[in-house]
Amino acid sequence: KGLVGVGPLAYLRGEILIDDGQVYVSRVLEDGSVRVEENPSATAPFFVYANVTKWHTLPWPENTTSIAQLETFLDQKYAGSNAPFALRLTGTVNRANIHVQNLPEGSQVRSPQEAHVGQVNVELPRQEVTVVGFYSRKHQGVFTHHDSNLHLHLITADRSLMGHLDAVEFGSMKLFVSEE
Q1: Is the pTM of this model over 0.85?
Q2: What span, in angstroms and rounded, lies between the C-alpha atoms of 98 and 60?
Q3: Per-residue pLDDT tens digits for 122-152
């Protein structure tokens, strides 16, 4: 209970999202479609997680519709702290783009670009979602991308699609951050 986490599946062959102890894995099938299943024994080459015992609700920042705007809000809100934290968003996205890693078997990765070979990109229309992620100013290239303080994974309310969140137009959302 309370465990949240995000990261790629072993061998970069999918994505993992943990939400309140439920482990969801997305994989690309041979036909290019994405399947999500629960798999508590999934493994990852790197992973960020936290056991959140209490969430703090923040008012959704006015006029925030993108990941960059959410990051700017968090940068300003937590300007005096360097502590990383988990976050959870629930609500409606007007649209979203996610990707699911799908590195060909036997591939060797020597650069971030090579890590994304074979990934499948999925565009989602308006729908209810949960986003689990992490914010940190000190972990770029460790558990966030090299150019961001955020690492976010999105799962649809019906649990049919899940992946790394690349772009979004947020609709009506609720924002929760882990309390220290």
Answers
A1: yes
A2: 22
A3: 999 999 999 999 998 775 655 666 677 789 9
